[in-house]
Amino acid sequence: MKCPFCGDPSTQVTDTRENEDGDIVRRRRRCVKCDKRFTTYERIDLKMPHIVKRNGHRAEFDRSKVLASMTLALRKRPVAVEDIEAAAARIEGKLLAMGERELPSVKVGELVMRELKKLDKVAYVRFASVYRNFEDVDAFSEAVREVSRTRGRPPKSD
């Protein structure tokens, strides 16, 4: 770490402390050359992948968009807000775990559908009907049959 006062690269850490949440580390440093003291902070910097839309447009991942679409599909359904937040966090975690710089929006949509299927079957069908843009009633009926087949079975864990 270079000294902000004289630019010398030789500094010593005199004190290290974490914040209450444990996600930020504060370090007090002393410059060996000019003997001035300064503070640095270390934070986790996670980079979410960019999302490539169907038309080729690229956008940053936006958790609020995922939450908004899930909330819309779950409108007037008996699902707690905490459960929706947890599902969005799982989606975000899976996207980070993929380690990709860019992902197709289709992948995000599939993850949302998987989470909605676990939370509420009606919300899953609502979301799938818009997301998959069904061309006819038969395709929609197949999605409903798919949910009906899985009703008696416990959901697969990922």
From TrEMBL:
<protein>
    <recommendedName>
        <fullName>Transcriptional repressor NrdR</fullName>
    </recommendedName>
</protein>
<keyword id="KW-0863">Zinc-finger</keyword>
<feature type="domain" description="ATP-cone">
    <location>
        <begin position="49"/>
        <end position="139"/>
    </location>
</feature>
<dbReference type="GO" id="GO:0008270">
    <property type="term" value="F:zinc ion binding"/>
</dbReference>
<dbReference type="GO" id="GO:0005524">
    <property type="term" value="F:ATP binding"/>
</dbReference>
<dbReference type="GO" id="GO:0045892">
    <property type="term" value="P:negative regulation of DNA-templated transcription"/>
</dbReference>
<dbReference type="InterPro" id="IPR055173">
    <property type="entry name" value="NrdR-like_N"/>
</dbReference>
<feature type="region of interest" description="Disordered">
    <location>
        <begin position="1"/>
        <end position="21"/>
    </location>
</feature>
<keyword id="KW-0479">Metal-binding</keyword>
<dbReference type="InterPro" id="IPR003796">
    <property type="entry name" value="RNR_NrdR-like"/>
</dbReference>
<dbReference type="Pfam" id="PF22811">
    <property type="entry name" value="Zn_ribbon_NrdR"/>
</dbReference>
<keyword id="KW-0067">ATP-binding</keyword>
<keyword id="KW-0678">Repressor</keyword>
<feature type="zinc finger region">
    <location>
        <begin position="3"/>
        <end position="34"/>
    </location>
</feature>
<dbReference type="Pfam" id="PF03477">
    <property type="entry name" value="ATP-cone"/>
</dbReference>
<dbReference type="InterPro" id="IPR005144">
    <property type="entry name" value="ATP-cone_dom"/>
</dbReference>
<keyword id="KW-0547">Nucleotide-binding</keyword>
<comment type="similarity">
    <text>Belongs to the NrdR family.</text>
</comment>
<keyword id="KW-0804">Transcription</keyword>
<keyword id="KW-0805">Transcription regulation</keyword>
<comment type="function">
    <text>Negatively regulates transcription of bacterial ribonucleotide reductase nrd genes and operons by binding to NrdR-boxes.</text>
</comment>
<dbReference type="GO" id="GO:0003677">
    <property type="term" value="F:DNA binding"/>
</dbReference>
<keyword id="KW-0238">DNA-binding</keyword>
<keyword id="KW-0862">Zinc</keyword>
